[in-house]
Amino acid sequence: xxxxxxxxxxxxxxxxxxxxxxxxxxxxxxxxxxxxxxxxxxxxxxxxxxxxxxxxxxxxxxxxxxxxxxxxxxxxxxxxxxxxxxxxxxxxxxxxxxxxxxxxxxxxxxxxxxxxxxxxxxxxxxxxxxxxxxxxxxxxxxxxxxxxxxxxxxxxxxxxxxxxxxxxxxxxxxxxxxxxxxxxxxxxxxxxxxxxxxxxxxxxxxxxxxxxxxxxxxxxxxxxxxxxxxxxxxxxxxxxxxxxxxxxxxxxxxxxxxxxxxxxxxxxxxxxxxxxxxxxxxxxxxxxxxxxxxxxxxxxxxxxxxxxxxxxxxxxxxxxxxxxxxxxxxxxxxxxxxxxxxxxxxxx
Length: 348
Known about the structure:
α4 (120-139) crosses α8 (266-276), α5 (156-169) runs parallel beside α9 (285-308) and α9 packs antiparallel against α11 (322-337). By secondary structure, the chain is α+β, with helices and mostly antiparallel strands. Helix content is 37%, strand content 11%. The strands form 3 sheets. The protein has a 5-stranded antiparallel β-sheet, with helices on both faces. Strands 6-9 form a two-stranded antiparallel ribbon. It has a two-stranded antiparallel sheet with strand order 7-8. It has 2 domains: 8-103, Phosphorylase Kinase, domain 1 (2-Layer Sandwich); 120-341, Aminoglycoside 3'-phosphotransferase, Chain: A, domain 2, CATH 3.90.1200.10. It is built from 11 helices and 9 strands. It starts with 7 loop residues before the first helix and ends in an 11-residue tail after the last helix. It has helices spanning 8-16, 65-75, 92-95, 120-139, 156-169, 177-185, 232-239, 266-276, 285-308, 316-319, 322-337, and strands at 26-29, 38-43, 46-52, 85-89, 99-103, 198-200, 209-211, 218-221, 228-230. The longest helix has 24 residues, at 285-308.
């Protein structure tokens, strides 16, 4: 397959300055993501992966391949499994937008949270390994790996709510009543800031893990564009989304027979994380509602890019409506603790 959207001559000239090889590189697009366009690259004997910002207008701060490259380099020698990031290129004259190249891992990627085709024991082991890897990530001291300035410590949720609310406000699409509600509700329901600071992945979910070819363990955590210094419970809340969303909502578990399939309950996943993590507070409904709110705004951005013709996937136009679905799921989480604040627009 060719690298549609990639100037292979320009890429060949760029690669030739760094690796032995000749001719044009072979490029194969990697599907499934809605963020930064990604390709397998074969150049000489090198087997690489290239990720770049998408073409066209993007929201401020989005698609930060530069930050992604930096955190991958910082974590390379840590207990967190990551692919080895090789080169970052910020000159937009080469491929039109900034990009970076990393080594390719040989493993498995599962975008379906039900993990079809595996045994119940394998499914359970894989979910619990996700919990342990997340705990290992949050145990890394940012200053010990050169990431002390990777974000602002403290007041994480206040800053994130402000950031994502602003991205939603800047959307070119229609307003979503459930999202408008969350923009108002979340700032007044934040737990007291306990000062916890960790390297937060920002999109830590099963589909962003590379698994060993035959074993139920993670060999690479992928897609770090949303990473920053943040509160560890933000990542943990994001991991809880599958238990609060349906299979047609980006692969959730609700309504499926996930218990019989061997997948641990949400509380079991959280308990495994807490058993291996640095001491932290409890996971609250606020953290899950915040994660769903944030995911909803991400899908607002996907819909905006689809309208602008710059989305990374042909499925983007179909995924845009998930913004409202996830916002409603957040209201359901809130309704469980505040029934008067339940989703007034009906269950999904």
